[in-house]
Amino acid sequence: MEGRSELALSVDDLTVAYHDKPAIWDIDLAVPEGALMAIVGPNGAGKSSLIKAVLNLIPRAAGTVAFYGKPYEKARSLVAYVPQRESVDWDFPTSALDVVMMGLYGKLGWFRRPGPRERARALFALEQVGLQDFVNRQISQLSGGQQQRAFLARALVQDAQIYFMDEPFAAVDAVTENAIVNILRELKKGGKTVLVVHHDLQTVCEYFDWLTLLNVEIIASGPTQEIFNAENLRRTYGGRVSYLHGGQLLAAGGG
Question: pTM for this one?
Answer without folding.
Answer: 0.88
